[in-house]
């Protein structure tokens, strides 16, 4: 899955409040973990949502595909691995793996964001500096 040098790993200790009645992390919390990893990936690349928004660029989610392989339980320590799938166009696509402390895959995800003009809410090309930074990863 991870095909380039852009992989970022974020370690997370799920909180009790994120579990369901069975002590399993509720599936909705996976989206929060993905976002946390994506923010760190952007930060390591030298960008942030705030920097994009200052340039009137929004990045709404277009599509999420999550495959749940093994439940995350309260007490597990997980790592979220995020990688850029390919060079961005008007869309940027990320691959994720969430693994537990035993390096067992708990979920796989592909998430697509769309570069969007903040004023017109229309798709646009990525910020040139962002695209150049991404090119260096491949």
The low-confidence runs, each spanning 5 or more residues with pLDDT under 50, are none
Top-tier CATH class: Alpha Beta
- CATH homologous superfamily, by name? Hotdog Thioesterase
Oligomer: single chain
State the major sheet: 5 strands, antiparallel
Distance between the terminal alpha carbons, to the nearest Å?
A: 14 Å
What number of domains? Answer: 1
Instruction: Report the helical percentage.
Output: 10-25%
CATH topology: Thiol Ester Dehydrase, Chain A
Rg from Cα: 16 Å
Strand-residue fraction?
A: 25-35%
Q: Write the element-wise H/E pattern from the N-terminal end onward.
A: EHHEEEEEEH
Shape: elongated
Mean pLDDT: 93
Secondary-structure arrangement, i.e. CATH architecture: Roll
The number of helices is 3
Describe this structure as you would to a colleague.
The chain has helices spanning 29-45, 49-54, 128-135; strands at residues 8-12, 57-58, 61-68, 78-84, 91-99, 105-114, 116-117. It has a 5-stranded antiparallel sheet with strand order 1-4-5-6-3, covered by helices on one side. It has a two-stranded antiparallel sheet with strand order 2-7. The chain starts with 7 loop residues before the first strand and ends with a helix. The mean pLDDT is 93. The chain has a single domain (8-135), classed as Thiol Ester Dehydrase, Chain A (Roll), CATH 3.10.129. Helix content is 22%, strand content 31%. The protein is built from 3 helices and 7 strands, in the order E-H-H-E-E-E-E-E-E-H. It is of the alpha+beta class. InterPro entries: 4-hydroxybenzoyl-CoA_TE, HotDog_dom_sf, YbgC/YbaW.
């Amino acid at each position: 899955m991870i095909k380039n040098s852009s992989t970022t790993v974020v370690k997370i200790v799920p909180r009790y409040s994120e579990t369901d009645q069975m002590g399993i992390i509720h599936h909705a919390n996976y989206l929060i973990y993905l976002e946390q990893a994506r923010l760190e990936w952007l930060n390591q690349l030298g960008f942030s949502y705030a920097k994009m928004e200052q340039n009137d660029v929004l990045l709404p989610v277009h599509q999420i595909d999550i495959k749940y392989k093994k439940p995350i339980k309260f007490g597990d320590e997980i790592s979220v691995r995020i990688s850029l799938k390919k060079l961005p166009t008007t869309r940027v696509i990320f691959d994720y793996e969430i693994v537990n402390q035993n390096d067992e895959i708990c979920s796989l995800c592909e998430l697509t964001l769309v570069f969007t003009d903040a004023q017109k809410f229309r798709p646009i090309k990525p910020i040139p500096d962002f695209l150049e930074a991404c090119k260096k990863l491949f």
